[in-house]
Design goal:
The structure is a single chain. The chain is an alpha+beta fold. The chain has helices at residues 43-46, 303-361, and strands spanning 2-3, 8-14, 21-28, 35-39, 48-55, 57-64, 73-80, 97-103, 105-106, 110-114, 117-118, 125-132, 141-145, 148-149, 161-166, 175-181, 187-194, 198-201, 205-209, 214-221, 228-234, 240-244, 252-257, 260-265, 275-283, 286-297. It has a five-stranded mixed beta sheet, with no helix packed on it. The protein has a five-stranded mixed beta sheet with strand order 19-26-25-21-22, with no helix packed on it. A four-stranded antiparallel beta sheet has the order 4-3-7-8, with no helix packed on it. The longest helix has 59 residues, at 303-361. It is a single-pass type I membrane protein. It comes from Cyprinus carpio.
Length: 362
């Protein structure tokens, strides 16, 4: 069971030796008066596609795209490996074996949704869906936000009117909401919650060296995403100086996606490129912007640490040299004083020895 404009897929697998051929047929009418129409790839205005493989056994898939009410009916998979199976003049020795599947196409059940939420003038909202003329009884329902089921929204109720409350409408809650009714087949409707974009700089400041390239990045959140991005170079008082147009100058290059923009500033100049930049995203609900500070370092900036170390070494050597020079005279005087005493004592000893010898000789 499918809805109008849905797709349907039927699979058929056949085993035999030799490997059988598989055909697809559309059967109309009652059993005694039924008529069959063989289906080929590209039939029904190219809405029918057939994929078949014949490796070890036969497999075939019938794909029906963009279904209409006229596609309702019986589809038959036929298989045969008789050599004369397609010769209309010779009755086949082995009859075609068949397997059937029913495809039933229904009109979409009508779902009335409300309201259209505009974040510019709404701080909260209550979404509602009203299901009319369902094909089968409703066995439950739930809500989704951007394709994900909302917590605590699933129920087994058979109600045809359901609501979902959004307490605060902002870029966090914006997006595509859908109410889903569990019937046969499952039906749903979508409600858009739109707000102006929320633009945030990826980094508040960016540092780069002179003559190098800097990359400034901004991101956007919310729904819908920006359809237009603009960059500005701000003056010292942070008023807008001029808009940067992509491709107008070899210095600037912009790369944009719906949720991100990047500005490349090439061949940086410390005098003209350093400063504040502003990125602005715009969608159908409005605009929002953020700022990034670009700091450009001189090409000699890398030398300052080395020069600082050299200066420290020179100062240290000078201090040691001055200290050594000032303490040298004091140390020399101390050495002279300490060396004279032993000489005097030795002389006195020699004098005594001389007197002793003289007395002995007498």
């Amino acid at each position: 069971m499918k809805l109008v404009e849905d797709n349907a897929e039927l699979d058929c697998e056949v085993i035999g030796n030799p490997i059988p051929e598989v055909q697809w047929w559309f059967i109309e009418g009652e059993e005694r008066n039924e008529t069959g129409t063989q289906l080929f790839d590209g039939a029904r205005e190219d809405r029918i596609h057939i994929n078949a493989t014949y490796i070890n056994h036969a497999t075939s898939t019938l794909i029906l795209n963009n279904l209409t009410l006229n596609d309702t009916g019986v589809y038959e998979c036929r298989a045969s490996n008789d050599p004369d199976r397609n010769d209309l003049r010779t009755p086949p020795k082995v009859k075609w074996i068949r397997s059937q599947a029913n495809v039933i196409v229904f009109e979409h059940a009508a779902i009335t949704t409300s309201p259209e939420v505009n974040g510019q003038n709404q701080t909260s909202a209550t979404l509602s869906c009203n299901l009319t003329n369902p094909t089968f009884p409703v066995k439950g329902h739930y809500w989704t936000n951007n394709g994900k089921i909302i917590d605590k929204s699933e129920t087994n109720s058979d109600e045809l009117y359901i609501e979902h409350e959004i307490k605060k409408v902002d870029y966090h809650s914006a997006g595509l909401y859908a109410c889903v009714f569990l019937t046969e087949p499952q039906v749903n409707a979508t409600i858009e919650v739109k707000v102006p974009p929320h633009v945030v700089a990826y980094k508040r400041s960016e540092n780069a060296n002179e003559k190098d390239k800097a990359v400034l990045t901004c991101m956007s959140q919310g729904y819908p995403l920006p359809t237009d991005w603009t960059w500005y170079k701000l003056k010292d008082d942070e008023s807008v100086e001029t808009a940067i147009v992509n491709g107008s100058d070899v210095k600037y290059e912009m790369k944009n996606t719906p949720n991100k923009t990047m500005l490349y500033v090439k061949d940086l100049d410390i005098n003209s490129d350093m400063g504040m930049y502003q990125c602005q995203g715009t969608n159908q609900m409005g605009s929002h912007s953020d700022k990034i500070q670009l700091r450009v370092r001189s090409q000699l900036a890398a030398l300052w640490p080395f020069l600082g170390i050299v200066a420290e070494v020179i100062i240290l050597i000078a201090i040691i040299f001055i200290y050594e020079k000032r303490r040298k005279p004091d140390e020399i005087n101390d050495d002279d004083d300490s060396g004279s005493a032993p000489l005097k004592s030795n002389a006195a000893t020699n004098h005594k020895d001389k007197n002793v010898r003289q007395r002995n000789s007498n």
